[in-house]
Specification:
The chain is α+β, with helices and mostly antiparallel strands. Helices cover about 65% and strands about 10% of the residues. The protein contains twelve helices and four strands. α3 crosses α4, α3 packs parallel to α9 and α11 runs antiparallel to α12. It is elongated, with a radius of gyration of 25 Å.
C-alpha cells in the first residue's frame, strides 16, 4: 500500500488531481453541513447560493454551477481557453459534489446553541480545503477568475478586487441574515486564513534574527560558542545618516528565541534587532 501511495505521489499530475478532489469534497461537505444550515455568508459563489436559497428556494448546487459557468465563460472570452481550462474542472465537479453531499444536512444535525465553536471548526476545515487546492496549482473557479481577468486586462489588484467582491457578498448576507451572522462569518474567514497560511507555509520551527549592535564580536561569540549556531554578517547602509553598518543574521530553533533575545540585551542593551518566522532552513550550519 505504501509503495502504491509513493508511486502516485511521484506522478505529480495524478497526485494534484487527488488533492483537488479531496479539497472540493471537503468544501462541499462543509457547505452543506455548516454554512448553508447556519446561513453563514462568507463570500464567493457559495454566499450568493445561500442568499438565493433563502429568498427564492433555488437549489444551491444549481446556483453555484450557473455562477461558476458564467465566470468560466467570462474568463474564456477575455483570456482564452488555455487560461480557463484550469477552472473548468472545479466549475463542474464542485456543484456536483454540493448536490451529492446535500443529504448530509439532514443526516448530521448541529446544535447551533454553541455557534462560536461551530464557526471555528468550520473555518479550520475551510482553511484546510483551500490550502490543499492552492497546493495543487488548480483554481476552484468562481469569482477569483474575475479578479484574475481584471488584473490582466485592467491592472486592478487581485487582492483589491477579491476583497471588494467578497465584502459586497458578505454585506448582502448581513442584510438578509442579520449582523450577528455576519460577525460569525468574519470569524470564520479569519480562522480560514490562519489555517490556510499554515497549510501553505507550514509551521515555523525557527526564528531568524537580524541584529545591529555596537558589540558585534561579543554577540557573535555568544551565538557561536554558547548557542552553537552560525552567524552571517552583511553590510548595510542606514537610510537617515547613510552610515555603513554590519547586520548579524542567525537562525535559531523557536525554543531558543527567548534565550537569544535575553542574551543580546544583556550584552548590548541598546542593540537593535528584529525577529521573523523562518519556515525553511537548508544548507550549512
Amino acid at each position: 500500500m505504501k509503495k502504491f501511495i509513493n508511486k502516485i505521489k511521484r506522478n505529480k499530475k495524478i497526485w494534484r488531481i487527488i488533492l483537488m478532489s479531496i479539497s472540493l469534497s471537503l468544501s462541499a461537505c462543509l457547505y452543506n453541513i455548516f454554512l448553508l444550515p447556519l446561513n453563514l455568508v462568507t463570500g464567493g459563489t457559495q454566499g450568493i447560493a445561500t442568499i438565493t436559497k433563502h429568498l427564492y428556494k433555488i437549489d444551491p448546487a444549481l446556483m453555484i454551477f450557473i455562477l461558476s459557468a458564467a465566470c468560466a465563460l467570462f474568463s474564456f472570452i477575455f483570456v482564452g481557453i488555455e487560461r480557463t481550462a484550469g477552472t473548468l474542472i472545479a466549475s463542474v465537479i464542485y456543484p456536483l459534489l454540493v448536490k451529492i453531499t446535500s443529504p448530509l444536512a439532514t443526516l448530521i444535525s448541529l446544535d447551533s446553541s454553541d455557534m462560536l465553536l461551530l464557526v471555528i471548526f468550520a473555518g479550520a476545515i475551510s482553511g484546510l480545503a483551500n490550502g490543499l487546492m492552492y497546493k495543487t496549482g488548480y483554481s476552484n473557479g468562481g469569482f477569483p477568475v474575475i479578479s484574475q481577468v481584471l488584473y490582466e486586462k485592467k491592472h486592478i489588484s487581485i487582492a483589491k478586487s477579491s476583497l471588494f467582491i467578497n465584502i459586497s457578498i458578505v454585506l448582502a448576507g448581513a442584510y438578509f441574515f442579520g449582523t450577528t451572522n455576519t460577525m460569525f462569518a468574519i470569524i470564520f474567514l479569519y480562522i480560514n486564513n490562519i489555517v490556510l497560511d499554515k497549510i501553505l507555509l507550514g509551521i515555523s520551527n525557527n526564528k531568524a534574527f537580524y541584529i545591529i549592535t555596537s558589540e558585534e564580536k561579543k554577540i557573535k561569540a555568544y551565538i557561536i560558542k554558547t548557542l552553537d549556531h552560525s552567524v552571517t554578517i552583511f553590510e548595510v547602509k542606514g537610510g537617515f545618516f547613510e552610515k555603513q553598518k554590519n547586520v548579524l543574521l542567525t537562525v535559531v530553533p523557536s525554543q531558543e528565541y527567548f534565550r537569544l533575545a535575553r542574551g543580546i540585551k544583556q550584552i548590548d542593551n541598546d542593540a537593535f534587532f528584529t525577529v521573523t518566522d523562518s519556515y525553511q532552513v537548508e544548507g550549512a550550519r
